[in-house]
Amino acid sequence: MNMIVQWTGLNIAQIEKERIDSSDVADVYRAIKKFIRAKSPEEILIDITGGKKSMVGGAVMVGNLLQIDTGYVDYEDYMPDIRQPKPGSEYPNILKNPLAVFGDIEIERVHEAFNHYNFDMGLDILSFLEDKIEDIWKVKILKKLTQLYKEVYNFDYAKAIQLAEEFIKSFSHRVDATLLGSVQNTLDIITYSRGRKASRL
To answer: 3-class SS at 131?
Structure first.
């Protein structure tokens, strides 16, 4: 504690501490989850440098699940004779959240489902991913797009028009011109088709 105060300039009252069973991964997980409950994940970095394997396991687990940065002090050069990193070769390293990689794999499944007109499967996968990967906007965009073309496929033009208009309004600044143009063309076609159907009635 004294060393933390010395190096950070904090005082003891600003430091939160909790004693845990360092051999119990679940206890580490619970303690970190309790600590961050009233805080924003963007304000937190979990440092696993030098921790016991059980502590590192619990810390990385909660960091990945709750999308909190997890990092450690890495090094470029190692001195095997004294079994220590070479002084001056250390650098901070942030671990990649494996759930982000998992999200990429699942997104490919969404694309495949979409291309085979299996819109319900795509929506199920996207709903599962919504609170589990970092690129939440990609999920939101794909979900709205899948909902739109599901209704087009089902000839529910009234709902499709509403979804297309919502897509353009919400995501026009987040998607490229080609995709935006495709959605606009879809909106124009189904609006025209619906108008012709209404005039015949």
So the answer is: coil
Paired residues of 84 in beta bridges: 79
CA distance 166 to 168: 6
**Separation between Cα atoms, residue 61 and residue 97, nearest integer Å:** 10
Q: Under DSSP, is residue 92 helix (H, G, I), strand (E, B) or coil?
A: strand
How far CA 190 is from CA of 154, 162, 195, in Å, comes to 12, 11, 8
The predicted-structure confidence for 135-173, as pLDDT tens digits, reads as follows 788 889 999 999 999 999 999 999 999 999 999 999 989
pTM beyond 0.85: no
Question: Each residue of 56-90: pLDDT tens digit?
Answer: 887 888 787 777 888 998 888 888 888 888 898 88
> Which contiguous run of DSSP H or E holds residue 85?
strand 84-85
